[in-house]
Amino acid sequence: MRYFSTTKLSAAALVFAGTGYFVWTVSAHSTGMTGLTTKTGGEGCSCHGSQSSNVTVSINGPSEVAAGQTAAFTVTVTGGPLAKAGVDIAASAGSTLTPGSGLQTIGSELTHVSPKAPVSGTVTFDFIYKAPASAGTATLYATSNSVNANGNSIGDQWNHAPEKSITITSSTGVGETGNPSGFSLNDNYPNPFNPATTLSFSVPKTGRVVIYLRDIQGKTIRTLAEETVPAGLFSRSFDFSDLPSGSYLWSVAWNGQVETRKMTLLK
Questions:
Q1: Do 31-169 and 184-265 come out as alike in CATH topology?
Q2: What's the topology of domain 31-169?
C-alpha cells in the first residue's frame, strides 16, 4: 500500500555542523500497510495516486457465518494499471482474520507481504474469517491499490471495496426456528477455490460427524475432521494448498448417513 518504512536515523542522518540542518534518509519497501480502510476513516492508498472507479475491489464470501465458526473469503482486484496490487483487510470488533498465501497479519488487520501480480486480469487475496462468539452482525472492509510497478506512484490508482455485511447466526445456526429438518450439505464456498474453501452442513440432532476428502475416483485421500456436534448448521474451512489442481469429492458422515459434494481446486 504505502511502500515506505519509518524514517531511520543512522550514519546517513547527517548534521551539518553549525547549521542545525539534518539530512534524513527514508528506506522504501514493498511490504503492506494497515489502517487504510473505511473502518478507520478511509484514508486509502493515498501514496499510490488517487482513488479511482477504474479500480474494482470486492469482498467475496458467505453472507452468514455461525457464531465462533470460520469461513473462507477472498478480496479480488481488477482494473487500473494492475501490474501488481496490494491490499488492506479489516473486520469489525470480535472477528478474527487469518491470512492466506501472500498475506500477513499486522495488528488485527491483514495486508500483503509483497505486491501481487494478476492472473487473467485479476489479483486475488484469500483469507479465513472467524466470526465473533455471539450472534449479531459483522462487517468486513478492504482497500486495494492497482499499480504500474514503475518505481513511483505516477499512474497508480486505488479504491475501497463495498463493505461486506455478515449475519452471525447462533452457534447452532437455528436460532428460534427449531432444528434443521434433516441431514444435508451446502455447496462449498468459494468453488472453484484456491487454496481454501468452506464446507457447510446441517444435522437435525446431536451426533458424531466425520468429514473426509476423496479423489474423483472415490478413493479417500484424508479425514478432515471428526467431532460430535449438536443439532444445527455448521461450517468448517480448510486449506488445500498441498494438493494439485483438480476436482475432488468432500463427504460428511453422520448417524449412518453419508452426503457428498464435488469441489474444484484451481491454482
A1: yes
A2: Immunoglobulin-like (2.60.40)
What's the CA gap between 117 and 217, in Å, rounded?
35
Check the CA dihedral 198-202-208-211 and report its sign: negative
**Is the previous residue joined to 115 through a cis bond, with omega within 30 degrees of 0?**
no
pLDDT bin (cut points 50, 70, 90) of residue 175 is very low
User: For the chain, what are the domain ranges?
Assistant: 31-169, 184-265
Q: How confident is the model at residue 235 (pLDDT cuts 50, 70, 90)?
A: confident
CB 205 within 8 A of CB 211: no
Say if residue 243's pLDDT is above 80: yes
**How is domain 184-265 classified at the architecture level of CATH?**
Sandwich (2.60)
Q: In this predicted model, what pLDDT tens digit does every residue of 45-71 receive, in sequence order?
A: 888 889 999 999 999 888 888 888 888
Query: Apex CA 60: angle with CA 56 and CA 64, to 5°?
Result: 145
- Whose cell is 463495498? That residue is 162
Q: Which residues of 156-176 are buried (b: 16+ CB within 10 A; e: fewer)?
A: bbbbbbeebebebbbbbbbee
Is pLDDT above 80 for 28? no
CA–CA distance, 146 with 127 (Å, rounded to integer)? 20
